[in-house]
Amino acid sequence: MTGLDPAIAARLKRNADGLVCAVAQQRGTGEVLMVAWMDDEALHLTLTTRRATYFSRSRGELWVKGATSGHTQTVHDVRIDCDGDTILLTVDQTGGACHTGDRTCFDAGPLLSPAAP
Known about the structure:
Helices cover about 15% and strands about 30% of the residues. The chain is an alpha+beta fold. It has a single domain, classed as Phosphoribosyl-AMP cyclohydrolase (Ubiquitin-like (UB roll), Roll), CATH 3.10.20. The termini are far apart. One of its GO terms (molecular function) is zinc ion binding.
């Protein structure tokens, strides 16, 4: 049983697996660090501990970002988008956000570069 506030839970639009998309963004710069998934318990834990907690679809369990790697996310702000299907976390990232060790999960290179002025 989750401790998530019922008013917050009612705003969420979950997928068929009961999950909502979560985007982690660096506080101050707006840099998008990673995308993960949350269930109600992960969101509840994130809100109450200010440590980013996600749901691993591959392992079928909760994981606190950095619990094993030390690459933590301290949460400063949490918002729900207008449709209720995405959570935005504003965090301070310590170490790499990506499981590869890269600063972000989007360091592999652009598919489309910005147009020249």
